[in-house]
């Protein structure tokens, strides 16, 4: 296993769920909960003759970001596309409950201490959503997670970190949207219906899923950043994501609430304005939208490195 | 019947004698005959008895003439079907240019619009049939017989057309084999080719994607046939003359640029840790062991992984300058890091790879770049180089049988061979020595038994294959699916890509079997079983036997080779995604949209 220091400069895109979990928190601070040695495996997959994993494709645990306890949930795309089934879902739910209980126990002590040691939840998404082999249990887990996000709101910041190969789609796209802060790299993608499904349902003329450049400029980090669907665009190392998580950990809860894209009357009004803007524009491609928002040369944005992009990109601002 | 005429074509005036030209004995309309003769260089009048082919061609071209723009060889896209109708006759041998890369797709589409009642029984002789329109010509009854080398995505449609009796199969060839027959018994009467640029005189610029064009045009035109070209652009002066205008009879600017398939591009993002392990084994157990300096890599992630660990693991093993210096290879994007790190001295390419033109043009020390500054690929020459001048072919397959024969054919799909068998075989005409070739020959026990004390080398033919493939399909089988296919599609023999007697090494994640070092078929089969893992073949391996094969150096596991499995992961790849390949190339590589993750 690589050491924490070598992990820091590692590509987030290339990292496994466990490497991400270890590297996202401070050196040596990560402890895995319900790890592979516990062998909590899916009861459904063997019945269908499918292979299992001892961690069911999700790594959960706790670590530290400075003084802040960090509850980490990290999904592994290489196991059935990072899909969420009964066990993986329960691990997510358990981790979120743990965050809430840490928060509540800190409330018993001094207010200053509770503020200084406020926990933070880091979810490294790599998933297409519900695992179809165990869809009911998976859907239920989605609902429970959604519930817990409401319970954690204004108490414990929940940060979505999206920089892995599969991106974040399906039901988990909803979950990501309901978190407080979304951090992405340009190499990852966020959405509800995945490109292949859109093509299958609406036809190739509507969306050509084999055109990866199209897929990325429609669902990728750069587009999501311009549209305000993600709050921060970062580079592709574990250190880049960790630095951003540290930064969020230090923000006030009011600032963090301001990062939410949905969940308040004001946020809904902003979203509706964007919908109206898009409807009037009738864009044929995401680059039409970028142009309309004041990005004169969209092609330049596609080719730009993350740093250049940050300097020149004009974002949607309601 | 004979008359003298003064004619002017373009700015040339010439006095000619018009003779009786029609095949049926009737004189042709004067203007037509005149133009046909004027188009040809002045020469001694031909004896009609010995120029039937030319006279037939002249007669056909006379019907095409009204469509050509005055003073040029250009016709309009809207007249394409009429032009084809003018020059193609039922029963003709016709070539539509296309291989696994570029396609004369517009002309192919137009040929399907001919009236099958008038034009039918065509005998298609062409490198490949990967387009839907290639098969449509058979479904419509325009074409009847096919001699080809590669079907790729239309493999299932070819099998179906054969079963339905819509397609009579001549034979499935390798590229070189088919090219050879163009000059013996399968010469096309009409060839429909494609190019980037043409001028009004028909000079063609085929550039980076020259591929099969020179060969097709030469075979066709020098047997009095007709060559029609679709070009992306008609220009005043072509960038470089790849095909002289005299050899091209008519040109059309196609509505869309010709189709190009990026067949040799592999996204490093999809290379697995197992691919890396096998690549490490290949470098240490084969490349280093034999000092492989002249080679070809097949398509696939296995060889892409080898290319991408040259600057990392290869460097560490101190192999730079000792291996991989000369390739017969398409411009693989995954080779960019090795080229940039100074590993490669020369690469001659069969074809051009989409997005690589600018990079190749900017590396003339490595690629074959013309005086105009752009690369020229040439399939016939590169295949010849791959047959005679390389010491190793390494590539994947779909199925290997218990004897070591391998095939990419599956039931219901006539995929064809392409060029792999020209390299995946021992070239028996080879007479020059290199250390790798001689060492392999020295180890080839069975060959020595037939030669006495005369030394002879042997090409290394390496099959690199994981024991299981996608959807848990086994790579090692008792009997190849090719047998079933041969039965279904009424083939003369099962389509075998690489024959067992040519294979020297089989490399799986379990180990390397050194087949040529084995004595006889029984020992070869034991060595194959030893590396076949948990497949039906591998499960028949006997531990004691495998142990003795390892002791004799006939089978080597990663441990035997000193390959550290813990290091076998993607971090050894010099580029982990397409974006990093672009970075390595200094922005010169321009990947197709479907490969971009940005």
Can you describe this structure in just a few lines?
Chain A is α/β, with parallel strands linked by helices and 318 residues long.
Walk me through what this model shows.
The complex is a heterodimer of chains A (318) and B (598). Chain A has helices at 4-8, 17-24, 86-107, 111-116, 135-152, 171-177, 195-202, 212-219, 221-227, 238-249, 253-258, 265-281, 286-292, 298-303, 306-312, and strands spanning 31-33, 58-65, 68-75, 120-124, 158-162, 181-185, 232-234. With 318 residues, chain A is an alpha/beta fold. Chain A has a domain at 4-190 and 230-259: 2-enoyl-CoA Hydratase, Chain A, domain 1 (Alpha-Beta Complex), CATH 3.90.226. A seven-stranded mixed beta sheet of chain A has the order 1-2-3-4-5-6-7, sandwiched between helices. In chain A, helix 8 packs parallel to helix 9 (221-227). The radius of gyration of chain A is 19 Å and the shape is globular. Chain B has 598 residues and is of the alpha/beta class. Chain B has three domains: 1-66, no CATH class; 68-260, Glutaconate Coenzyme A-transferase (3-Layer(aba) Sandwich), CATH 3.40.1080; 268-584, Glutaconate Coenzyme A-transferase (3-Layer(aba) Sandwich). Chain B is 31% helix and 17% strand. Chain B contains 21 helices and 24 strands. In chain B, strand 6 (122-125), helix 5 (132-139) and strand 7 form a beta-alpha-beta unit. The longest helix of chain B has 18 residues, at 273-290. The N and C termini of chain B lie far apart (71 Å). Chain A binds chain B through residues 10-11, 13-14, 165, 186-187, 210-214, 216, 220, 222, 302-303, and chain B through 269, 570-571, 576-577, 579, 593-598.
């Amino acid at each position: 296993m690589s050491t924490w220091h070598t992990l820091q400069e590692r590509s987030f895109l290339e990292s496994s769920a466990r490497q991400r979990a270890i590297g996202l928190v401070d050196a040596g601070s990560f402890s895995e909960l319900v790890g592979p040695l516990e062998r909590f495996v899916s009861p459904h997959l063997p019945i269908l003759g499918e292979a299992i994993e001892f961690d069911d494709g999700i790594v959960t645990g706790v670590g530290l970001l400075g003084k802040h306890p960090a509850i980490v949930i990290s999904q592994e795309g290489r196991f059935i596309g990072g899909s969420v089934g009964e066990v993986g879902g329960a691990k997510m739910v358990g981790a979120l409950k743990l965050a809430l209980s840490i928060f509540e126990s800190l409330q018993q002590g001094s207010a200053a201490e509770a503020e200084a040691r406020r926990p933070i939840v880091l979810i490294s998404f790599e998933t297409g959503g519900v695992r179809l082999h165990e869809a009911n249990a998976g859907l239920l887990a989605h609902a429970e997670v959604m519930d817990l996000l409401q319970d954690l709101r204004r108490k414990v910041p929940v940060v979505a970190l999206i920089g892995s190969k599969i991106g974040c789609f399906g039901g988990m796209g909803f979950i990501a949207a309901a978190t407080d802060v979304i951090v992405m790299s340009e190499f990852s993608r966020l959405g509800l219906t995945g490109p292949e499904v859109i093509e299958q349902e609406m036809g190739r003329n509507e969306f050509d899923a084999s055109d990866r450049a199209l897929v990325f400029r429609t669902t990728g980090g750069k587009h999501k950043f311009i549209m305000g669907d993600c709050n921060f665009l970062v580079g592709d190392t574990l250190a880049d994501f960790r630095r951003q998580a540290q930064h969020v950990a230090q923000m006030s809860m009011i600032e963090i609430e301001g990062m939410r894209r949905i969940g308040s009357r004001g946020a809904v009004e902003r979203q509706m304005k964007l919908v109206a803007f898009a409807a009037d524009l009738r864009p044929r491609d995401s680059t039409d939208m970028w142009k309309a928002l004041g990005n004169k040369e969209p092609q330049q944005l596609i080719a730009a490195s993350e740093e250049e992009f940050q300097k020149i990109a004009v974002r949607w601002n309601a | 019947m004979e008359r003298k005429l003064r004619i002017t074509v373009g700015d040339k005036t010439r006095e000619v004698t018009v003779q009786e030209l029609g095949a049926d004995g009737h004189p042709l309309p004067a203007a037509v005959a005149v133009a046909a003769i004027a188009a040809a260089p002045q020469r001694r009048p031909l004896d009609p008895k010995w120029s039937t082919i030319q006279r037939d061609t002249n007669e056909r071209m006379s019907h095409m003439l009204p469509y050509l723009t005055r003073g040029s060889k250009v016709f309009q896209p809207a007249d394409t079907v009429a032009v084809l109708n003018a020059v193609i006759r039922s029963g003709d041998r016709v070539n539509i240019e296309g291989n696994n890369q570029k396609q004369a797709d517009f002309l192919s589409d137009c040929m399907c619009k001919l009236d099958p009642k008038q034009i039918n029984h065509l005998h298609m002789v062409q490198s490949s049939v990967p387009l839907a329109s290639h098969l449509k010509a058979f479904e419509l009854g325009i074409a009847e017989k096919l001699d080809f080398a590669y079907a790729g995505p239309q493999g299932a449609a070819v099998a179906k057309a054969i079963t339905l009796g819509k397609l009579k199969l001549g034979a499935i060839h390798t590229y070189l084999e088919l090219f050879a027959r163009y000059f013996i018994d399968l010469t096309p009467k009409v060839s429909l080719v494609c190019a980037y640029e043409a001028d009004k005189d028909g000079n063609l610029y085929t550039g980076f994607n020259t591929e099969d064009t020179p060969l097709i045009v030469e075979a066709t035109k020098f047997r009095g046939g007709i060559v029609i070209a679709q070009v992306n652009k008609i220009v005043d002066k072509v960038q470089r003359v790849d095909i002289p205008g005299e050899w091209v009879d008519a040109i059309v600017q196609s509505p869309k640029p010709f189709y190009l398939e990026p067949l040799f591009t592999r996204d490093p993002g999809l290379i697995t840790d197992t691919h890396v392990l096998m690549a490490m084994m290949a470098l240490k157990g084969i490349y280093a062991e034999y000092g492989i300096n002249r080679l070809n890599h097949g398509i696939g992630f296995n060889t892409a992984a080898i290319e991408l660990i040259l600057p990392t693991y290869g460097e560490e093993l101190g192999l730079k300058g000792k291996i991989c210096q000369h390739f017969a290879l398409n411009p693989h994007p995954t080779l960019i890091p090795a080229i940039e790190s100074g590993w490669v001295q020369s690469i001659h390419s069969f074809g051009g790879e989409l997005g690589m033109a600018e990079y190749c043009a900017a590396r003339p020390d490595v690629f074959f770049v013309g005086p105009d500054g752009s690369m020229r690929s040439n399939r016939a020459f590169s295949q010849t180089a791959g047959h005679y001048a390389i010491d190793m072919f390494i590539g994947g397959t779909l199925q290997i049988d218990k004897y070591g024969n391998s095939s990419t054919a599956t039931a219901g799909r006539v995929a064809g061979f392409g060029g792999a068998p020209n390299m995946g075989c021992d070239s028996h005409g080879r007479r020059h020595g290199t250390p790798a070739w001689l060492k392999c020959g020295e180890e080839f026990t069975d060959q020595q038994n037939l030669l006495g004390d005369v030394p002879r080398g042997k090409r290394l033919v390496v099959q690199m294959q994981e024991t299981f493939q996608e959807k848990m399909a086994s790579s090692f089988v008792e009997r190849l699916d090719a047998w079933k296919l041969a039965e279904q599609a009424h083939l003369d023999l099962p389509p075998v890509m690489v024959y067992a007697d040519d294979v020297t090494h089989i490399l799986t994640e379990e180990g390397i079997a050194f087949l040529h070092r084995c004595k006889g078929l029984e020992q070869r089969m034991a060595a194959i079983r030893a590396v076949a893992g948990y497949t039906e073949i591998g499960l028949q391996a006997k531990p004691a036997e495998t142990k003795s094969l390892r002791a004799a150096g006939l089978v080597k596991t990663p441990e035997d080779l000193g390959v550290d499995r813990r290091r076998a992961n993607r971090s050894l790849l010099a580029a982990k995604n397409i974006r990093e390949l672009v970075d390595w190339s200094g922005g010169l590589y321009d990947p197709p949209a479907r490969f971009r993750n940005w």
